[in-house]
Amino acid sequence: MSVLYNENCEWFQHGSKGADFCFLCHEPMTFPCIYWVGGSPTAPVSKGSELWLHPQCVKKLTAGLGRDLIEIHLMKDVASAWHQSMKEAA
Ligand SMILES: [Zn+2]
Prior knowledge:
By secondary structure, this protein is an alpha+beta fold. The chain is built from two helices and three strands. A three-stranded antiparallel β-sheet has the order 1-2-3. The protein is elongated. Residues 22, 24-25, 27, 53-54, 57 line the site of zinc ion (ZN).
């Protein structure tokens, strides 16, 4: 992860063009912005997909990811209780 403050930062001096649009809101990218790299089905992380985000969009994305993680934990408990009740009923 990197925070890029302007187009003169070291990242762009290595040939990266950056992104034209934010990954989440699809509005034009502005500075400061946040940049991440992740893997893809056909490429390792070092050559994978790039995420470019506005700071306010990072807030929305992390809140959404956290909400989804909580849902997984809650559903895990529900699923576990359901399996236990089915065992007891059998
Ligand atoms: Zn955005």
